[in-house]
Amino acid sequence: MTGIYEQAKSVFSEVMEKSRPEIGDLLVIGCSTSTVLGDKPGTNSSEEVAEELYRAACEAIGDKYDIAVQCCEHLNRALVLEKEVALKHGFTIVNAVPHRKAGGAFATKHYHSLKDPVVVEDIASSAVIGVDIGGVMVGMHMRPVVVPIKLENNRIGEAVVIAGYSRLKYIGGERTKYLE
User: Fold this and answer.
1) pLDDT at 180
2) How confident is the model at residue 49, as a pLDDT?
3) Residue 86 in 3-state DSSP?
């Protein structure tokens, strides 16, 4: 457990600095606590690791952004978020409550930390920032076009961390002018 919080805080802080989100942006986080511990995903889900990771994420991200946490494959990669956020975005709420063995420890921690938690089947590829801890494939929830973030700190425990942010699509031809 030593160092998990510090590594996670460093990773999330770097992602926020390099992605430069705007207030209200939707972030998606996927995490395998088993992989952080060096095990195969879904084999050693840890509430203690989830607690450390979640505390670090909340401190680095703050409360100006909407966070969706991806559940594991036993809940078909559904996502946990505040009901208010789901309604604001028009996401379809489903009937499921994550737990350590179906949803995963990190999604369960997020669920029980929210004021009015819900699970949605998908977020219609609308996340602006994605953080993938342990290869859990959050890219499916990201808005195109995803730009990978080259992380200096790309490990939490034994898990590799991959992150990215989306930028607006460039459309038009050679006469088009673009925003900076």
Assistant:
1) 76
2) 98
3) helix
Residue 167 near residue 147, CB atoms below 8 Å: yes
Q: Residues 118, 121, 32, CA angle at the centre, nearest 5°? A: 80
Nearest to 157 by CA among 6, 42, 55: 6
Please, which residues bridge with residue 133 across strands?
31, 161
Which residue type does 66 have?
Answer: D
Report yes or no on whether pTM surpasses 0.85: yes
Query: Residue 41 in 3-state DSSP?
Result: coil
- Locus of tokens 């979640």: 54
Residue 132 Cα distances to 83, 140, 175, angstroms: 23, 11, 37
Q: Are 24 and 127 in contact (CB under 8 A)?
A: no
Beta-strand relationship, 66-70 and 26-31: parallel
Q: What letters, b where the CB count within 10 A reaches 16 and e where it falls short, cover 38-48? A: ebebbebbbee
The two tokens of residue 8 are 């996670």
Sign of the C-alpha dihedral, residues 159, 44, 55, 107?
A: positive
All domains in the chain, ordered by first residue? 4-166 (3.40.50.10360)
Give pLDDT < 70 ranges for the chain: 1-2
For residue 165, what are its two tokens? 């942010």
